[in-house]
Amino acid sequence: MIDKHKHNFRVCIYKGKAIDNQLIGLSEIAPTVLLENSLDMPQGHWPSGFYYDRNGNQISDPSRVIFAIYYNPLNLPTGITMNSGARFDYLYSAAGTKLAEIIYEPDASTPTVRRDYAGIFEFENSSHMKTKISNH
Question: How high is the mean pLDDT in each 10-residue block of the chain (136 residues)?
């Protein structure tokens, strides 16, 4: 099934050229896919609530119940807070390589899950979970 959705964008023009486009409203009219862990957007209508910082980074997304997104000086996301209070924190090297993802349940002061990334290896709560092998 192909999703049916409508987007409303704000397009900024600078010296006659579009320099960015920002989602300001969204309607998803197709039924939600019934797959666990699906990244499918839920059915709904969000006429507003999509906000951006001065660098053009999206800082909220009501369609995915994201209350706030925080960024570092490299414009990489360092934290996401959900409406439920759940939180995702991200750590990066100085070059911008993702080193870790730390997940907190709502109102938790200690992490529920920590994923560390070291080259091709991924660890979850200090246990090896994946090795990424390239075909190149």
Answer: 46 50 64 55 60 86 86 95 95 96 94 93 85 68
